From TrEMBL:
Role this protein plays: Involved in an early step of the mitochondrial complex IV assembly process.
Pfam families xrefs: Pet191_N (PF10203)
Cell inner membrane among keywords: no
Signal peptide feature range: none
Family stated for the protein in its record: Belongs to the PET191 family.
Gene Ontology cellular-component terms listed: mitochondrion
GO term, biological process aspect, one: mitochondrial respiratory chain complex IV assembly
Keywords: Disulfide bond
Species this chain originates from: Oedothorax gibbosus
Keyword set includes Disulfide bond: yes
Name used for this protein in its record: Cytochrome c oxidase assembly factor 5
PANTHER family in the cross-refs: CYTOCHROME C OXIDASE ASSEMBLY FACTOR 5
């Protein structure tokens, strides 16, 4: 589940495109058993599709991919980026 904090100071957060989705994916992976118990890197956990990683993390990975792809798609300039 995405973590949004309305009280968060926006001047300190990363303002790059798709940064919110990237942060949510990182938090999701760091809280999974694959990283905590098996001491693997988050990249390894995603690459191996470890069963201890929740499906939510894989959904966030797909969302991050779509967000990054929308940056390259010229049609998205008029429609806006995904993830906002």
């Amino acid at each position: 589940m995405p973590i949004y904090d309305e009280d968060r100071d926006l001047t300190k957060t990363n303002s790059t495109p798709c940064s919110g989705v990237r942060e949510d994916l990182l938090i999701c992976l760091q809280s999974s058993d694959c990283v905590k118990l098996h001491h693997k890197s988050p990249k390894e956990c995603l690459k191996l599709r470890d069963p201890s990683v929740p499906n939510e993390c894989f959904t966030l990975k797909t969302l991050l991919f779509e967000c990054k792809r929308s940056l390259l798609d010229n049609r998205q300039r008029f429609r806006g980026r995904k993830g906002y």
